[in-house]
Write a structure and sequence with these properties.
By secondary structure, the protein is of the alpha+beta class. It contains four helices and five strands.
């Protein structure tokens, strides 16, 4: 991102301010570590200097290597209704589809495991709504 067309023409001071305007001491910390003139442009840094810059940014931000857990997010591919009310959802889980109760589907959505938005009404009713710009569950084929 820093070497891209947006940030590379900026001075270090301007780039850091644009990146994080909430910390006025950010550039001072970077300059203290790198000894760079804050008025240098990012594109003027050679590879070694650029590496010093991003390592200083990582240090200031206390960046640490972490791990990432993959959480599969499932799709609703059908519904069962009783008297016009959805009572079950067909959830597409690799490698097969599984019917789950409305309550289970709501719980999956709350956990972030389902492409659906859980809705909680004031009087205690819960239901699922399709994600923004998605087809209604009733017309999914």
């Amino acid at each position: 991102m820093l070497r891209g067309s947006v940030y590379s023409p900026f001075t270090l001071r301007a780039a850091i301010k644009r990146y994080d305007s909430t910390n006025p001491n950010y550039i001072d910390e970077i300059v203290k570590i790198t000894k760079f003139n804050p008025e240098r442009t990012i594109k003027s840094l050679n590879d070694k200097e650029f590496e010093m810059l991003w390592k200083a940014i990582e240090f200031v931000e206390k960046w640490r290597v972490g791990t990432e857990d993959f959480i599969e997010k499932w799709i609703i591919s059908g519904v069962h209704k009783k008297k016009g009310v959805i009572v079950e959802y067909l959830v597409h889980k690799s490698p097969k589809d599984v019917w789950v109760t409305k309550e289970k589907a709501i719980q999956l959505a709350i956990e972030g495991r389902l492409h659906a938005v859980p809705v909680h009404l004031k009087h205690g009713t819960h239901y699922l709504r399709p994600e923004y710009k998605s087809k209604p569950f009733e017309i999914i084929v």
